[in-house]
Amino acid sequence: MKVAVCARESHINSPVDQRFGRCPYFVVVDVDSGDWEGLPNTGCHSGGGAGIQTAQLLVNAGVKAVLVDRIGPNAMEVLARAGIQVYEGISGTVSQSVEAYRQGHLKLLSQPNSPRHSRRGRS
């Protein structure tokens, strides 16, 4: 099963990134085989809708779970519609967070844990 982890760099020992839509990479780990790959987050530089674009990237990558620190309502909705589970509580490195997931130490989210972003100041 493929699990995606928000990461600052594209490798298994990368520090995790707290942001979902704006993290620069995801490390996608097959928890059964231990194989992994770095996946650039193509949505992270978008002017708006980064969470939605990022969620769609992971849907297209075939992941079944996402490990995050924070995630907003729009991204959460896209992932939920695709049947992708979202877990919070990552810390340290990608590898450490995957191990925490394997041991059942991360919390399954049923709703977003970050507010919708405001568009104040934009015309």
UniProtKB/TrEMBL annotation:
Domain Dinitrogenase iron-molybdenum cofactor biosynthesis residue range list: 13-102
Q: Which residues form the signal peptide?
A: none
- Show the InterPro entries listed in the entry: Di-Nase_FeMo-co_biosynth, DiNase_FeMo-co_biosyn_sf, MTH1175_dom
Q: What is this protein called?
A: Predicted Fe-Mo cluster-binding protein, NifX family
Species in which this protein is naturally found: Desulfofundulus australicus DSM 11792
